[in-house]
Amino acid sequence: QRWASSLPMNTLVLFVPQQEAWVVERMGRFHRILEPGLNFLIPLLDRIRYVQSLKEIVIDVPEQSAVSLDNVTLQIDGVLYLRILDPFKASYGVEDPEYAVTQLAQTTMRSELGKLTLDKVFRERESLNSNIVHSINQASDDWGIRCLRYEIKDIHVPPRVKESMQMQVEAERKKRATVLESEGTREAAINVAEGRKQAQILASEGEKAERINNANGEAQAVLLKAEAKSKAIRVLSEALSEQNGNAAASLTVAEQYVSAFSNLAKESNTILLPTNAGDMSSMVTQAMAIYSTLGKTSQKARTSQMNSKRRYNAEEAVCFSYRGSKASLCEQS
């Protein structure tokens, strides 16, 4: 009952505090509103009827019960913040502004809670506060009061509903844990598979490179062996063409015969020997005869090839000298 307590008396000269509005009646009828500072009134005729504070007022809304859209009974309370904008309407528009605004906040809160389910009441708390403020301002414009904001303090649910909500939260957390664990297992399996794939690829590439290197090495070894053999044959041919080359060849054949004869019967028990196996001179003589025969055959082939080339060159020269009148003879030849 802030408006009815300790009203100032008319003492002709009055000092109104800042952020207050004094409503003056003259002979029982509204006269004017005193502004902060120095003011003068007529005794006995003027009377200060209401004192309105222009500061922001905080009103505690008592706890009340409300039913949500899914038929859950809630116990809810809040805090209302308002300010008087028109002292005249606040004095003469309603008998008790605080009581009227409090009742309006309670009824609006019950109405807004009936539009939401229990889960949305907790999630949409901010939108619920703004809807209550908007509804209060629509009705309080005629009272000269402006609701600035409304805040819900506590929401109490029945014990059974609270237990079910707790079970729901635990189930949701278990679900998230299971999902996260399965995702972790899947990622681990994918990583292991990727690792094995990369390992196989690298192993195959290494094996490929090893085979290529081995093939290159074998090819180079074959080339080197062929070059060495060709050089050895060339050196041997040069040595045979020199003086006493046949004697050196005979000595080499004799050494190889002795070495091969000493290795007989080491790998097999069955041996076929010529009748004169112990006569080394005859074996060397036979080998040198074969070599001489092959040499003569190759020499004859080279000689015949050179004679054919010389004959062809001679015929070409004759045809060139008799060209012209004897062209038919050259053609026949």
From TrEMBL:
<dbReference type="Pfam" id="PF16200">
    <property type="entry name" value="Band_7_C"/>
</dbReference>
<protein>
    <recommendedName>
        <fullName>Stomatin-like protein 2, mitochondrial</fullName>
    </recommendedName>
</protein>
<dbReference type="InterPro" id="IPR001107">
    <property type="entry name" value="Band_7"/>
</dbReference>
<dbReference type="InterPro" id="IPR001972">
    <property type="entry name" value="Stomatin_HflK_fam"/>
</dbReference>
<comment type="function">
    <text>Mitochondrial protein that probably regulates the biogenesis and the activity of mitochondria. Stimulates cardiolipin biosynthesis, binds cardiolipin-enriched membranes where it recruits and stabilizes some proteins including prohibitin and may therefore act in the organization of functional microdomains in mitochondrial membranes. Through regulation of the mitochondrial function may play a role into several biological processes including cell migration, cell proliferation, T-cell activation, calcium homeostasis and cellular response to stress.</text>
</comment>
<dbReference type="GO" id="GO:0005743">
    <property type="term" value="C:mitochondrial inner membrane"/>
</dbReference>
<dbReference type="InterPro" id="IPR050710">
    <property type="entry name" value="Band7/mec-2_domain"/>
</dbReference>
<keyword id="KW-0496">Mitochondrion</keyword>
<feature type="domain" description="Band 7">
    <location>
        <begin position="11"/>
        <end position="169"/>
    </location>
</feature>
<dbReference type="Pfam" id="PF01145">
    <property type="entry name" value="Band_7"/>
</dbReference>
<dbReference type="GO" id="GO:0007005">
    <property type="term" value="P:mitochondrion organization"/>
</dbReference>
<dbReference type="InterPro" id="IPR036013">
    <property type="entry name" value="Band_7/SPFH_dom_sf"/>
</dbReference>
<comment type="similarity">
    <text>Belongs to the band 7/mec-2 family.</text>
</comment>
<dbReference type="InterPro" id="IPR032435">
    <property type="entry name" value="STML2-like_C"/>
</dbReference>
